[in-house]
User: Which sequence fits this backbone?
């Protein structure tokens, strides 16, 4: 194969096949795709899960302020700022997953299903 020829499906390992209907990619078909998919979701969602389950920053900040300790924290602002950061972190990992799908998957394009054997049985009957 020369440099000017495009690689075919059999020439490269496809991790994410194209969807049959719509735009984008389907479920991974090899273990490397599953590792990439689950890894990106786990790392991307980790800060959101931490904030939702274990984070007690606002409570800690309120306790520090009520004890009269001079602290540079605002209990009303901490959670939204951290939530925004966690959402941006998740969005970044989704973009990384899209990049992996682009490089290791089939070319993304809009698809309308199988073009062979179109089913015309759903067409309206002719009226007399």
Assistant:
């Amino acid at each position: 194969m020369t440099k000017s020829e495009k690689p075919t499906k059999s020439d490269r390992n496809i991790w994410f096949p194209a969807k049959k209907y719509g735009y984008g990619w389907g479920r991974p078909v090899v273990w490397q795709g599953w590792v990439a998919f689950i890894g990106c979701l786990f790392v991307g969602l980790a800060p959101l899960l931490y904030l939702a389950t274990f984070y007690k920053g606002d409570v800690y900040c309120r306790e520090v302020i009520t004890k009269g300790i001079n602290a540079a924290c605002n209990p009303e602002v901490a959670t939204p700022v951290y939530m925004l950061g966690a959402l941006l972190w998740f969005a970044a990992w989704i973009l990384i997953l899209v990049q992996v799908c682009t490089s290791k998957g089939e070319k993304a394009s809009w698809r309308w299903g199988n073009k062979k054997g179109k089913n015309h049985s759903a067409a309206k009957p002719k009226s007399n």
Remarks:
- The longest strand covers residues 21-22.
- Helices lie at 31-53, 57-66, 78-104.
- The beta strands are 21-22, 111-112.
- Residues 48 and 84 are 10 Å apart (CA to CA).
